[in-house]
């Protein structure tokens, strides 16, 4: 496949069936070139012909022959590695899940080799469960906790795991015999929300995700923002107090020392490894609740003034937060950002549902292996 194939597929994904005339206009291709390219996609089975009455594209009474994406033609695997959890899915070409699986593990024994072994087992089980033909699996996207290299093959660092330069793509490609692309896990969720969720019509989307830590991902004009070519948006490590508690990153007073699973669960006297409805439990402790809200409002306002998102999406525990939490952020942030942003900024819960991390990883694989036009 080539770049023009990718452009055609993206239009069909985002805007539905199109006539060849409309595709030629939007891709700036000649009718002959467009016909040649769509013929290839038809043979491959990723698009299908259909009749559609498209005004202006055909004489009156004669419907134009259009083409449409076939979402079930191919599949991808998405795997999200969180702190003590692995979530995996197999999706179609619109990132709709065919099946999901999850596994918890002890972070105290989380050497990369052991985690890679768990990923291989869970993916093999999903392939067997869905019955997907391996020849129709175009690749695997892996969401990892921390920045990745510019070639998107390695997890450069993970504070919570003390991992450095882990060659996930090489190892998983050898074990699973399929192409692999690696992405910062919250950036992958932001990408999925931008492509397939609530952020489809936004220019800049900031996704904020609370589980063990507080991560963020930014998508601008449809592209993940990677500072320096590999960096992640480390909202959780914004310093909010000068002489605060020591953070896992080595600094003191980071936002994560107030707003992380560990800090909130400890304050609410919860000892469950993976608590549900965490913020609803914390709301019963006004001091902890108010501090978390105050510092998150400050951090979001700072990020908004720096990055200018028009949509902020909450994921993880934040997506499950009481409405009072969301309302406080919606009221508290606009007065603290520059005037042009006040009228356009929206704050919403994630629309991805359970397994958002795995869906995000699948979205990264779809972008890299299918919609970019990269050859398979």
Automatic annotation (TrEMBL):
<dbReference type="Pfam" id="PF00480">
    <property type="entry name" value="ROK"/>
</dbReference>
<dbReference type="InterPro" id="IPR000600">
    <property type="entry name" value="ROK"/>
</dbReference>
<dbReference type="InterPro" id="IPR043129">
    <property type="entry name" value="ATPase_NBD"/>
</dbReference>
<dbReference type="InterPro" id="IPR036390">
    <property type="entry name" value="WH_DNA-bd_sf"/>
</dbReference>
<protein>
    <submittedName>
        <fullName>ROK family transcriptional regulator</fullName>
    </submittedName>
</protein>
<comment type="similarity">
    <text>Belongs to the ROK (NagC/XylR) family.</text>
</comment>
<dbReference type="InterPro" id="IPR036388">
    <property type="entry name" value="WH-like_DNA-bd_sf"/>
</dbReference>
<dbReference type="Pfam" id="PF13412">
    <property type="entry name" value="HTH_24"/>
</dbReference>
């Amino acid at each position: 496949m080539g770049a023009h194939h990718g452009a055609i597929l993206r239009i069909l994904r985002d805007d539905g069936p199109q006539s060849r005339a409309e595709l030629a206009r939007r891709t700036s291709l000649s009718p002959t070139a467009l016909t040649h390219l769509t013929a290839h996609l038809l043979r491959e089975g990723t698009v299908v012909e259909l009749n559609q009455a498209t005004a202006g594209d055909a004489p009156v009474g004669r419907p134009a022959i259009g083409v449409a994406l076939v979402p079930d033609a191919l599949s991808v695997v998405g795997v999200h590695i969180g702190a003590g959890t692995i979530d995996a899915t197999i999706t179609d070409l619109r990132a709709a899940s065919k099946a999901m699986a999850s596994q918890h593990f002890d972070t105290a024994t989380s050497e990369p080799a052991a985690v890679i072994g768990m990923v291989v087992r869970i993916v093999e089980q999903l392939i067997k469960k869905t019955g997907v033909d391996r020849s129709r699996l175009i690749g695997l996207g892996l969401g990892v906790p921390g920045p990745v290299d510019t070639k998107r093959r390695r997890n450069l660092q993970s504070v919570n795991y003390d991992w450095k330069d882990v060659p996930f793509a090489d190892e998983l490609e050898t074990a699973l015999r399929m192409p692999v692309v690696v992405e910062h896990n919250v950036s992958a969720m932001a990408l999925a929300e931008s492509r397939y969720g609530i952020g489809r019509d936004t220019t800049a989307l900031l996704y904020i995700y609370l589980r063990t830590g507080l991560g963020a991902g930014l998508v601008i004009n449809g592209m993940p923002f990677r500072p320096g070519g590999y960096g992640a948006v480390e909202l959780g490590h914004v310093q909010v107090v000068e002489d605060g508690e020591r953070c896992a990153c080595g600094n003191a007073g980071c936002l994560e020392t107030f707003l992380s699973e560990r800090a909130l669960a400890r304050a609410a006297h919860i000892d469950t490894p993976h608590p549900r409805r965490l913020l609803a439990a914390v709301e019963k402790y006004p001091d902890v609740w108010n501090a978390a809200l105050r510092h998150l409002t400050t951090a979001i306002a700072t990020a908004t003034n720096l990055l200018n998102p028009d949509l902020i999406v909450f994921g993880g525990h934040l997506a499950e937060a009481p409405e009072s939490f969301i309302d406080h952020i919606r009221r508290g942030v606009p007065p603290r950002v520059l005037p042009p942003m006040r009228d356009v900024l929206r704050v919403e819960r994630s629309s991805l549902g359970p397994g958002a991390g795995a869906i995000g990883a699948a979205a990264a694989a779809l972008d890299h292996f299918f919609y970019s036009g990269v050859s398979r």
